């Protein structure tokens, strides 16, 4: 059986000493490495009527110890305007950094919520029955503990109408160091 050119190249010694460089440049890196972006997608709508923050069923990404990340998310949400949405992100013990929801504070509000918010601290944002986009952004620095980075969310005020995080919402972490 004849070898392809790629197979033939990989079975011979590295005569120029540059194969490691080329592998890093042209072969997609795997795992949690610097400059690698990882995304999780919400596959199905998830309704909630509770005011108690709880982990999202699919928007969780594992993070390494002693690492730094940039965080972006795209949350498609609808619900009762009077109820609103509370959300936060949780990170492993000892982590630092901050995030901002980048969304109106109340229904019909025009001010963007841009103040730094600590991980684990909730921010309240407005929602509408027609739906809103909430695009949180942040930076995360982990300590010597690895673990999960997770979106938590709930209604801000109790309502019989569910708050729904829609399919197609996503969470993205890019390791920066």
Number of strands: 13
Helix share, percent: under 10%
Order of helices and strands: HHEEEEEEEEEEEEE
Instruction: Tell me the count of domains.
Output: 1
Largest sheet report: 9 strands, antiparallel
Shape: elongated
Estimated share of beta-strand residues: 35-45%
**Class of secondary structure makeup:** mainly beta
Continuous helix count: 2
Instruction: Estimate the mean pLDDT confidence.
Output: 88
Low-confidence runs = none
Q: Based on the structure given, which CATH architecture is correct? A: Sandwich
The CATH topology turns out to be Jelly Rolls
Summary of the model, kept short:
Helices cover 8% and strands 40% of the residues. The chain has helices at 5-11, 19-26; strands at residues 37-41, 46-48, 54-63, 68-78, 85-90, 96-100, 117-118, 123-125, 132-134, 137-141, 147-155, 163-165, 170-175.
